[in-house]
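Let's practice the habit of predicting before peeking. Look at the sequence and jot down your guess about where helices and strands might fall. Then scroll down.
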Amino acid sequence: MSKNLSLVASLFCLSSSLLAEDNNTSVSTGGGHYTLEASVVEASNYPYSSGQSLNESFIKNAPNGNGDITSLLKVLPNVQFDNNQLNSNTPGEIDPANISISGGLYYQNSFLLDGMSMNNDLSGGVNKPGMNEDYTPGEQREFSGRSQGLNIDSFLLENISVQDSNIGASYGGFTGGVVEATTKKAQKEFGANFAYQISQGNASPGAFSLTQYHIYGNEEEFLNSSSGSNQPKFIKHSFRSSLESRINDKLGIIASFTTTQSFIPVKEFVQDQNTPSNLVSVNRKEKRQSYNFFIKADYQVNDDIALETSYAFMPQYNKYYNADYVNSGTTIKSGGHNLGAKAYINNKFGFLTAQTSFSYLEESRRSDAKGTKTWIYSADKNWGDPNDFQYEGSFGDEDNIQSDVELKLNQSFEPYYNDNFENIFNAGFELGYTKAHFKRLSESSDVLSPFGIEDPNYVCQDEYCSSAPVDPSNNLIDPTGANYGQFLGVMNKYKKGKISLDSTNLAFFIEDELKFDLDNKGDINTRLGLRMDYDTYMQKAPIAPRFSLKYIAPWGRDDRLNTNFIFGANRYYGRNLFAYRLADGKSALEENYFRMDPNQNFDENTLVNAVPNNTSFKKLKIPYDDELSVSLTQEFYHFDLVGKYIHRFGRDQIQRNCIIDPTSNACSSVYTYDNTGRSDSDIITLSVQNSNPFALGFIDNYFLFAFDYTQTKRSYNDFNDEFDPIDREYAEYQGSIIKLKDLPSSNFTRPYTLRLTSTHQLKKGRTTWLLNNFFRYRGAYQALVNTSERMQNIDGLNRRVYVYENERIAGNFSWDMRVGFDIDISKGNIFYTNIDILNVLNRRITTTGKTATRTIKKTYETGRQFWVEVGYRY
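Done guessing? Here is the structure:
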């Protein structure tokens, strides 16, 4: 506690000393005066209170750890984060955080890079039944990809915007929100920027560590872990670089390379090179390696035409080893390519934006072995715990590829106006083609369920048999005959094959904005829009109406006392994720075998028949959200206030359900998708910020306060969650029998969050000093625990009822900080350093994750963590 108090005191002393300078708003450096740079969260770009954006200065000055774009969004209201994002067990991960906007699920946000889609529709959000957050993607056959297809480093960006309500008709393919990242353009005749950043952690007692761990459960087991799901040691390196040039008045080029890499020591068992029959434990390093290669050019053809083109190659390679497995190495490759060109054209009708793009995204796996085997401990299967199963292998090689080609046209017509009226019409067209495929490069299998060999003279005939003695006292096997060896009785085979899908996508939208000047009674602005999306995959053409109305009060226009009242009624249709169809295609490549005798082979005689999914996706409806919103924006001199209420009705959401066998009234082995999912969300947000920095002495000071309250009821948490519409339809919750779908959501559901961001920047002489603070209080919430189950007669049928109870997760306060300093050595050659301190007070913050049985597991968020950065720019 004394260490915390000392740290707080010293940091506030630094802040106070910065604020103690005299009262000027500009600085003379001998070369003239200049205005101090501001860090701003901008809402003025959205006249109908659609969202907010973070500008380049804010991005540069905020503490951001891994540098991913979604982590920066924690300062904004109405952005909920995955409970597992800051897990103290896995501080070595570098994936971007999953987020929920306006109560939507994270895989139904629209992620855009310079207006080009970077959504992962291969498996972004697919969790097959049994997915477990206790394990890494390398430790389970079905891994869940992120919904953000490219892991972009915020170093590349000049702006990040989030739209959460009243979103215009030019945006489609989401039921959550829109996250748009805009990359930098060349600004200088010549400029360069190079930076290196490091963090690390070592949970061993007494060891040097830039990261403090908080471990829920047995710390000794955590320290001795051989799995990437527990990371007692790690080190992260980030290298960032860019070169830019305004070659002439018309042409500018910027190129950038960044990489973030994390190395996590683990142990793996391998064959001894000298004695192949023996196994040895070796030290391995799991790796998380993200790369961003980026180049962008802009060219001003003439006064009426401007061009932009860019190319991004952003792969990520994650290397995993499976705990207690032999030969388990697995590499998962994600990310890909994005190529685009954009033209801005003044024409006689108004202003045209034309954009074309190509993207290539993948989620692929390469493994050291084609399959897995599960054994009982024996003389030759002896690399793990003698009282547990012995595992070997991995999950084979697979490719998931998504390619998109798209053309977008957006024409804003010349406005018509007179003294009291203005009409602005906008229309757009989108045409795209998407091709996706899943390919298993070679046959793979999971072979398990060991049985004892009863014949002492039996000689093993295949690789799924071992003659080595098994201890008959082992409680994992029937001791009868077990000392003659073992054979594996169940094979789940995953056949070599390829599933290809494609879709042609078409969209039209129109938007008409009407502005009425009511003289001394104020102004009324309204925006009417319609959007139609069609694709050959689902063969549906839903039409989404968009309506926004704003009343501008007549008072205070000249004194920054403007008051706006805004109302919106909108519909948003979600994307048609290829993950639905690919998941079913993969299941058709699966075969299950069972044998009771080692003399039997895994062939047609031991095949257990399975019926593939019989869903026709063309018969499914497109999921949608209807939205009602009201908001108030108020200028009060140097402050901007935005208050908003949003209600979302999510309907026709897609779920995977089990088909009931009419003979047994129980779940069959056949699954189908349907549109039974639904959700209802109520969101209240409030934000207050100063529109211009407060200048105190040489200090610019910027503050943003944000609050949100969210209540979401959802009949699903993931579109591939398994539940039986009869056998798992009912739950007991708080003493009442309810439908399972009416249980509270279990993730992205913090009821309320308060945030305060403060940025203080001093420019004096050749130096610049920075202090950025982010304070956050997240309210307590109730997590669900499945405690038991029972059978109960409901409506004349014997139903299974699952009993859920609440587990209170306490509210928590956290404080993140960046302290920065740079100095101009000579003629714009600037050296700089930043120190990020996450969880400054090292608070023990409880959070939760889910397991395969839908229960929660409690864990802690990462403790105090330091990141140190040094760099040079010109």
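How did you do? Residues 1-39, 125-132, 719-727 have pLDDT under 50 and may be disordered.
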